[in-house]
Amino acid sequence: ITYNGGQLTIDTTNLGSFSVTASSIEVDEGFPTLSNVSSLSLTASGANNDTGGITVNTPLDTPNGSITLIADSGDITVNVGGTLTAGGGGITLTANNGAITTYNTLSSTGDLDLTANNDIDLHGQLDPQGNLNITSNNGSINITADMDVGGNFTASAANNIFIGITDPSVGGFLNLSAGD
């Protein structure tokens, strides 16, 4: 990794895993495809009393690895320009004290695990070849995007679960649990 006048350059040739921990993280244009990486991990700690969240505005692609995003005190947002593609494993999004909102595709060869303290709003395609597990500890789950789940689909919310699509594809069982 080199830093030159505001530009971060990452040589991924011999990089086995890539991990970043910062107070908050925004992934913008120019983030490289991490072809040789077995795992990508981004953790927003919120240490500087800022948002403590993670915002993805450009594709995050690990053709041979998994993706883990953890926001300790803020939200995780995957905007229209952002996608998450894990070609060598699963995707895990965890917002310990926040919400998860996606507007674009989450695709993995493994499981897709989404856990938030607050609401989870999914407006982008959900395409795990493995299981889809969604947990909102103190909020609701709102799904308005197509989903093609290779395995089981499990969702649990403290409040409501809304699935606003007419033909979800689930290869295994469906288990939904909402409210008290």
Structure, described:
The chain is mainly β and 180 residues long. Helix content is 0%, strand content 48%. The chain has strands at residues 2-4, 7-9, 17-22, 25-27, 39-44, 54-56, 60-62, 66-71, 76-78, 84-86, 91-95, 100-102, 106-108, 112-116, 120-122, 126-128, 132-136, 141-143, 148-149, 153-157, 161-163, 169-170, 174-178. The strands form 5 sheets. An 8-stranded parallel β-sheet has the order 3-5-8-11-14-17-20-23, with no helix packed on it. Strands 4-6-9-12-15-18-21 form a 7-stranded parallel β-sheet, with no helix packed on it. A hairpin with a 2-residue loop joins strand 1 (2-4) and strand 2.
What keywords describe this structure?
mainly beta, 0% helix, 180 residues
What are the low-pLDDT stretches, counting only 5+ consecutive residues below 50? none
Strand order of the largest sheet: 3-5-8-11-14-17-20-23
Largest pleated sheet: 8 strands, parallel
In DSSP terms (H or I, runs of 4 or more residues), the helix count works out at 0
Given helix and strand content, the structural type is: mainly beta
- CA radius of gyration is 16 Å
Oligomer: single chain
**Helix amount, in percent?**
under 10%
Q: Name the shape in a single word.
A: globular
Strand-and-helix sequence, N→C?
EEEEEEEEEEEEEEEEEEEEEEE
Report mean pLDDT, rounded to a whole number. Answer: 89
* Total beta strands: 23
Distance separating the two termini = 49 Å
What fraction strand?
A: over 45%
